[in-house]
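Consider the tokenized backbone below.
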């Protein structure tokens, strides 16, 4: 399973009335990050639109 979510969408979901300021990309900043690796995916449990990892 692979979901992509924009940081702006996360910010609006958490604080829909908050002001957002775009400051650009900083040195070393990632443009994409995988939260569940290929080694972990076999331990993932998917329930509706959520993923859970077991120890």
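A designed sequence for it:
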């Amino acid at each position: 399973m692979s979901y992509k979510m924009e940081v702006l969408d996360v910010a609006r979901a958490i604080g829909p009335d908050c002001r957002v300021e775009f400051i650009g990309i900083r040195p070393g900043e990632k443009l994409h990050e995988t939260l569940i690796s290929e080694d972990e995916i076999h331990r993932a449990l998917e329930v509706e639109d959520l993923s859970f990892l077991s120890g």
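The first helix runs from residue 7 to 14.
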